[in-house]
Design brief:
The complex is a heterodimer of chains A (356) and B (364). By secondary structure, chain A is an alpha+beta fold. Chain A has two domains: 110 residues, 2-Layer Sandwich (60s Ribosomal Protein L30, Chain: A); 167 residues, PurM-like C-terminal domain (Phosphoribosyl-aminoimidazole Synthetase, Chain A, domain 2, Alpha-Beta Complex). In chain A, 29% of the residues lie in helices and 23% in strands. In chain A, the strands form three sheets. In chain A, strands 9-11-8-12-10-13-14 form a seven-stranded mixed beta sheet. A five-stranded mixed beta sheet of chain A has the order 1-2-7-5-6, with helices on one face. A two-stranded antiparallel ribbon of chain A has the order 3-4. In chain A, helix 4 links the parallel strand 5 and strand 6. In chain A, helix 3 runs parallel beside helix 4 and helix 6 packs antiparallel against helix 9. The longest helix of chain A has 18 residues. The two termini of chain A are 26 Å apart. Chain B is built from 14 helices and eleven strands. In chain B, helix 1 runs parallel beside helix 10 and helix 6 crosses helix 11. The two termini of chain B are 28 Å apart. Classes of the chains: A alpha+beta (356), B alpha/beta (364). At the A-B interface, helix 1, helix 8 and strand 14 of A face helix 2 and helix 4 of B.
């Protein structure tokens, strides 16, 4: 079989290995930016280099030496537009806010671009705009610029949204997988797989009880409290969206050249999500989240960090799920409930339900 | 989770493992026929928990893996029939035929849709009355009755645009083929739980009867599988081969008569081409003459060039027959990975190579 498909496959957009390779081979190569090449959730742009020098001024503005901006963008093509626990608009705000927040920045301003398929009911668009406004209010960000395009019927699927966001990096904050050290502990703020399964159930018309809701939420409030309470505890954070928990942990293990050990029984999974996954033959550890953050902390701060997370409404079910190790660098190893250990790899494309 | 957690209980698992270790005095090798078992065995890390005397080897029970390159090429050709919508279960879109995979056909404009059930395919047919909707029927006795039900439903609704390309396969003939070939020394078979729910445990009586081979049907949770292994060890140690049922909560001796009746109303037993085996007589299901108008291969005769030989170096065939372990294949991990699968066993989640790769074990 060929090494590379001559055309783009749906699997290239799944967030797994194929997506990574596509980004590396096409975008990182041609855009040729050292900031992009770091492939963090948000680009960090600082004053030390020439990046933020004021045009026409010979000196940087006084008092701005420490100012660093976080900048990110994301597009949303989710179907259905409305799902239990959220909608495409809420998702578009949360996703970008969360990418800024996990980089250690305080999210401030968002842009919103809309690609609308001819025929979309105005009422639908308005409901989504109201939802975006409400989410932005909760997150404490402003949507300050935007764009609207309408395309022919069939050229888009109802509505696509792109958001970009700018945030201000907290002083002295440098979060990166390269900070990971053996012994660091891994926390998550709650149950995994809620978003992906809620959307799939809605899309496929399956029902596993009415309580299956997307976890879609802006995490900047939770993260601000954590960083305020334990400013030196956090090594790295990431929101495990497409590809789920395992994909993010693999990204960390590979980029830090460290091993990661996870305890399967410690990972919180909602009963309904487990049941739905069992029926479809999916693994919740690979299912998308939109309101979760994985946090690597120095070992001595783990308890306090957990307490701070659990005191916040979005972290009540926070748990310690694993640790960083210098064994098996680049690999994530899961301890099963029966005490066996196995490697968990990143998926190539999307998870597919089993046949029999 | 009720009805699942009980069958994953670590304390009970330890007791079963102790039991197996105590009973097992000589080396034995059991084959799990079913890819679902292979997947579960790796997911729960059962191999590393068993005593060194008990070896498990993977069999051909992955419907995606045993679909021949020729049948896949035909499916790709059917997807290219003007106006057609080809519907299929998930994993099939990724498997390489000799002229590319269904997902490549989709990226080049063919309308290929992944469905979760045949009911979804019927719904697509209802919504697109002007377009032929072809369902690619893969799988064993587990899925075949649902495809039969869809055909009967299409008949009842006069849904003229619904067709099936049947590459369904039957499990007992393949098991027989493995034993007849004599390439692998086996002391017992872990019988496929879902298949046997349909065909009934009695369908495996030929194993002890004709081959002196113990067979225990198992479910897919760790305790189900360990209990089956325990029973097989006991039969092997005592030299008393029989058919055992370690999946009593769904499997009955006679199977599911309604499902079987429906399956044989629509399909008849035919020869089938298995990847790794070649044609095995009386091991497949073809649409009966009365449903010829639903048979995609008869309604849309597509030309398919005979498939090229299997990719060089790929030992999928031997993996499927249980002759070699995936790690014995020179391509495993080096050239062949889920990212660049050479053979189908690396594509499907139920394929042995993918299970070995995805759930690689680490020494404790």
């Amino acid at each position: 079989m060929k090494d590379q498909s001559p055309t783009i496959l749906l699997a290239h957009g799944s967030g797994g290995q194929l997506s990574h390779e596509l980004v590396e081979r096409v975008f990182v190569r041609h855009f040729d930016s050292s900031i992009l090449a770091e492939l963090n959730d948000a680009a960090i742009i600082g004053f030390e280099s020439s990046e933020l020098q004021v045009p026409g001024s010979t000196n940087p503005q006084p008092g701005t030496d420490n100012l660093k901006l976080a900048f990110t963008t994301d597009s949303y093509v989710i179907q259905p537009l409305f799902f239990p626990g959220g909608d495409i608009g809420k998702l578009a705000v949360c996703g970008t806010v969360n990418d800024l927040a996990v980089s250690g920045a305080e999210p401030r301003y968002l842009s919103a671009g809309f690609i609308i398929e001819e025929g979309l009911p105005l009422e639908t668009l308005e409901r989504i705009a109201v939802s975006m406004a409400e989410t932005a209010r909760v997150a404490g960000v402003q949507i300050v610029t935007g764009d609207t395009k309408v395309v022919d019927h069939g050229a888009a699927d109802g509505l696509f949204i792109n958001t970009a966001g700018v945030g201000v990096l907290r002083a002295g904050m440098h979060l990166s997988p390269s900070n990971l050290r053996p012994g660091d502990l891994l926390l998550i703020n709650g149950t995994v797989g809620d978003h992906g399964m809620a959307v799939m159930m809605q899309r496929e018309g399956l029902e596993f009880g009415s309580s299956l809701l997307s976890d879609c939420a802006p995490l900047n409030g939770l993260i601000a409290e954590l960083l305020a309470a334990c400013p030196d505890a956090v090594r790295c954070m990431r929101d495990p969206t497409r590809g789920g928990l395992v994909t993010t942990l693999n990204e960390w293990a590979m980029s830090a050249r460290m091993g990661i050990e996870v305890e399967e029984t410690a990972i919180p999974v909602r009963e309904e999500v487990r049941a739905a996954c069992e029926v479809l033959g999916l693994d919740p550890l690979y299912v998308a989240n939109e309101g979760k953050v994985i946090i690597a902390v120095v070992p001595q701060a783990a308890e306090e960090a957990l307490a701070v997370l659990r005191a916040h409404p979005l972290g009540r079910e926070a748990a310690l799920i694993g640790q960083v190790t210098d064994e098996h660098p680049g690999r994530v190893v899961l301890r099963t409930p029966l005490g066996a250990r196995r490697v968990v790899e990143m998926l190539v494309g999307a998870q597919l339900p089993r046949i029999c | 989770m009720k009805y699942v957690d009980e069958f994953r209980d670590p304390a009970l698992a330890r007791r079963l493992l102790e039991d197996i270790a105590r009973r097992s005095t000589r080396p034995v090798q059991f084959m799990e026929f079913c890819g679902g078992h292979t997947h579960a065995i790796f997911k729960f890390g059962l191999r590393q928990l068993l005593p060194p005397t008990v070896r498990l080897s993977s069999g051909p029970g992955c419907p995606v893996c045993v679909t021949s390159a020729g049948d896949l090429d035909r499916a790709v050709a059917l997807a290219d029939v003007p106006g057609a919508i080809l519907t299929t279960f998930g994993d099939m879109v990724r498997v390489p035929g000799s002229r590319g995979s269904l997902q490549e056909a989709r990226s080049q404009g063919a309308d290929v849709r992944v469905v979760y059930s045949t009911l979804d395919a019927l719904q697509i047919a209802r919504q697109n009355p002007d377009r032929p909707v072809i369902f690619l029927g893969v799988g064993f006795e587990t899925t075949a009755p649902t495809v039969a039900a869809a055909i009967l439903q299409a008949e009842a609704e006069n849904l003229a645009n619904f067709y099936v390309f049947s590459v369904h396969k039957l499990t007992p003939p393949a098991t027989r083929a493995i034993l007849d070939a004599g390439e692998v020394r086996l002391d017992g078979i872990i019988g496929p739980g879902h298949v046997t729910t349909i065909i009934g445990a009695d369908a495996w009586r030929f194993l002890p009867g004709e081959y002196g081979m113990p067979c225990v049907v198992a479910g897919f949770e760790p305790l189900d599988i360990l209990r089956a292994v325990d029973m097989l060890v006991q039969m092997a140690e005592e030299g008393k081969p029989a058919v055992g049922n370690a999946y009593g909560r769904t499997v009955r001796a006679e199977g599911n008569r309604i499902a079987l009746e429906m399956m044989y109303r629509v399909f008849e037993v035919s020869v089938a081409d298995w990847r790794g085996f070649g044609p095995i007589p009386a091991s497949g299901l073809a649409l009966r003459e009365e449903y010829a108008h639903r048979d995609a291969t008869r309604v849309f005769p597509v030309e398919v060039v005979p498939p090229a030989a299997e990719p060089k170096g790929c030992r999928c065939g031997e993996v499927l027959r249980g002759v070699v372990e995936p790690t014995e294949c020179p391509l495993f991990r080096r050239v062949c990975s889920p990212r660049t699968p050479v053979g189908p066993c690396m594509v499907s989640a139920e394929g042995a190579c993918a299970a070995y790769y995805q759930y690689g074990e680490v020494s404790p």
